[in-house]
Design goal:
Order of helices and strands: HHEEHHHH
Pfam family, one: SufE
InterPro entries: Fe-S_metab-assoc_dom
Helix content: 40-55%
Number of domains: 1
CATH architecture: Alpha-Beta Complex
Domain Fe-S metabolism associated: 12-131
Strand order of the largest sheet: 1-2
Number of strands: 2
Protein name: SufE family protein
Oligomer: single chain
Strand content: 5-15%
Organism: Marinomonas foliarum
């Protein structure tokens, strides 16, 4: 599904950032690693409601593991998606539901980018990731 960089690598990259500008550059660099969705995959049923930017999330399950594809019309949001998906890619639904994804994201130095409207979008993404049904 996704060609995600190891979550430990992403965490280390983001935690190493010492300024808002450095974090922004890292997120933009990460955004370039996200495989873009096709126009067909950007269907309305894959759109995450509540996001300021257009965000699409596809969840597939194979052999009990969840795999994710995602895209956004905003570069920064694509970087945030990489960070989020790196935490959950290849895990089971039960394992994902046990995770405190908000806390895990908090450890990634992203608070300066989570404006109130963007936070609502991120929370909508996290809810969809942890939902029993897609």
């Amino acid at each position: 599904m996704t060609d995600l960089v190891n979550s430990k690598d992403i965490k280390q990259q983001l935690q190493a950032c010492r300024s808002k500008e450095e974090t922004f550059k890292t997120l933009v660099t990460l955004s370039k690693t996200l495989t873009r969705l096709t126009p067909e995959e950007k269907a309305e049923e894959n759109k995450v409601k509540g996001c300021e930017s257009a965000v699409w999330l596809i969840i597939e399950e194979k052999d009990g593991q969840r795999h994710f594809k995602a895209d956004s019309d905003a570069k920064l949001m694509r970087g945030l998606l990489i960070a989020i998906l790196s935490l959950v890619e290849g895990k089971t639904l039960a394992a994902i539901q046990k995770m405190d994804l908000k806390s895990e994201l908090g450890e990634l130095n992203l608070s300066s980018y989570l404006t109130s409207s963007r936070t609502n979008g991120v929370l909508a993404i996290l809810e969809k990731i942890q939902a029993t049904k897609q």
